[in-house]
Amino acid sequence: MIVRTATFLQSNTKIDKLPTANKPEYAFIGRSNVGKSSLINMLTNKRQLAKTSSTPGKTITINHFLINEEWYLVDLPGYGFAQRSKKDREAWKVMLDNYIKGRKNLISMFVLVDSRIEPQKIDLEFISHLGELQMPFGIIFTKVDKIKEGELQRNVQVYKDKLAEEWEELPPIFITSSEKEIGKDDVLNYIEHLNDEMREVRF
Ligand code: GDP
Q1: Which of 84, 178, 180 has most ligand 1 atoms within 8 Å of its beta carbon, as the pocket-test mutant?
Q2: Residue 145 CB neighbours (<10 A)
Q3: Torsions phi, psi for 9 (to 5 deg)
Q4: CB-based burial label for 141 (10 Å; 0-12, 13-18, 19+)
Q5: For residues 109 and 131, what is the distance between their CA atoms, to the nearest angstrom?
Q6: What residues flank ligand 1, with Cβ below 6 Å?
Q7: Contact 18, 103 (CB under 8 A)
């Protein structure tokens, strides 16, 4: 898929104020600093489209972008946020759950994980939670330019083994680097393929 246009639509805190759910939607999530903004900017060919979500004190919002007038890309706040209050974290959890359960045009989520580190409890818990909610998802390994090929293969295998403890079928896995523009086509073509499947669906 070639991204011809990418437009910021809105940042929202209310599920009932989101853009009309009439186009396929894909949401990106991960721990703060995982490289989510950089990845979104790489996918959309814009250097500044997604701003880093880790700014302390910044309102936690659901951020919608319209791509090629055809599908929505959603930038979700990073989970975890150690620097936020428990109340904030709880509120975000509720909002996120309501979003996942209620957004009928949400086709797949993408969980971003740092390729350099071992599977983190918070990511694995979130992935399990997606399973409970029966929400399809892919896993995107980020920052692969920062490690050697052998180490990357090992880390991905560790992740697969960990997932296999719980999942019979593994999710799609993407290897990416925003720095080196690796994996861009893999993610975009996967989305295009899902969009094609959704062509006849009315949400
Ligand atoms: P976010 O908080 O998940 O949105 O993360 P950012 O996209 O703001 O990235 C966090 C930090 O990691 C920044 O300093 C980025 O420059 C760096 N970063 C992000 N992606 C990559 C990558 O693919 N390769 C390298 N080397 N650094 C990256």
Answers
A1: 178
A2: 14
A3: -100, -60
A4: buried
A5: 11
A6: 30, 32-38, 52-54, 78, 142-143, 145-146, 177-179
A7: yes
Letter for the amino acid at 137? F
Over residues 88-133, the pLDDT tens digits come to: 888 888 999 999 999 999 999 999 999 999 999 999 999 999 999 9
pTM above 0.90, yes or no: yes
Atom of ligand 1 nearest to the CA of 34: 3
**Residue 84 one-letter amino acid:** R
Indicate the burial class of 92 (C-beta count within 10 angstroms; 0-12, 13-18, 19 or more).
buried
179 phi, psi to nearest 5 deg:
-65, -45
Q: Per-residue pLDDT tens for 126-164?
A: 999 999 999 999 999 999 999 999 999 999 999 999 999
34 token code pair: 């995982």
CA-to-CA dists, residue 202 to 22, 116, 198, angstroms: 7, 40, 8
92 alpha carbon – ligand 1 mean position (Å): 23
